[in-house]
């Protein structure tokens, strides 16, 4: 394969003419350990700033990376970051190469395989490859939601990842935001809709909380949507959990979802069976916006209810002690509500 070396522009330097020196079998490839014809050149006008290739051509081509610094050749993104991001976003990545073996022989065998594969793929032109990559990274930017590409290419409202606004509203409408912890009619129900936590809420903290009330069948949390479902193994444990939350004193309006504090974050809980929580990051981000709004509304309704109750208590023949207790409680609750707002507003800034 006597072709153009794959070297990124920053490694090539600013000179328009770069003189390269070939060193047959001059280096061992960092990825496959096989010796290859290394290239050396002066990447800078200053003397002594010599650059060299450290990755063989087939390894670099298979990964679409620079033979010298190993960044993605088209996007100048470090390989690990690129592959991790694509994997996270669930996008097929033709340039990901699993080569985690520490064994030199195995590495070399994988290198041979890659080279063979590339020879068979010779028909794919560089332009086709670039097109594929562009497609992938554009998708990635869209999936990441607030990505720079998505922002510049079109207004945010319209990039709902291929789904119509109608479908999304249907999804949101199906979510039991208006639910409560009152006994459900269906005796089979043992699933809770849990919402309002921020994206950094550790799932195990939520599991831990619910496990104190009984055996959990499943916890399905979509962090990006700030909501999810917790399903108990049995209805009786679910009932126990519901009544424990109802009577924890945090939520004064029992007609709305219960309130718990997990990891010092306010989280709402109501009965609710599993519904879709958005098909992509964009939909999930929109659901999260609704969650944030509902959290505020619920806190406001709570405060209203609390005001009514305090008035009633103070108006009746309550003893001094009762008054004091109720006052204390209100103070405590206001503090908690304030705390929850703080958590929410910090989260919103992201
Ligand atoms: Zn190699
Ligand atoms: Zn480079």
UniProtKB/TrEMBL annotation:
Annotated Gene3D superfamilies: 3.30.70.330
GO BP field: mRNA processing; RNA splicing
Region of interest called Disordered, as start-end residue ranges on this chain: 302-350
Bias (Basic residues): 306-321
GO cellular component, one term: U2-type catalytic step 1 spliceosome
Primary location class: nucleus
Domain of life: Eukaryota
Residue spans of biased composition, Basic and acidic residues class: 322-350
Name used for this protein in its record: Pre-mRNA-splicing factor SLT11
Function: Involved in pre-mRNA splicing. Facilitates the cooperative formation of U2/U6 helix II in association with stem II in the spliceosome. Binds to RNA.
Localization (cell): Nucleus
Annotated InterPro entries: Cwc2/Slt11, Nucleotide-bd_a/b_plait_sf, RBD_domain_sf, RRM_dom, Slt11_RRM, STL11/RBM22-like_N
Coiled-coil segments on the chain, per record: 111-143
Domain called RRM: residue spans: 190-274
Keyword terms, alphabetized: Coiled coil, mRNA processing, mRNA splicing, Nucleus, RNA-binding, Spliceosome
Protein family (similarity comment): Belongs to the SLT11 family.
Pfam families linked: RRM_1, STL11_N
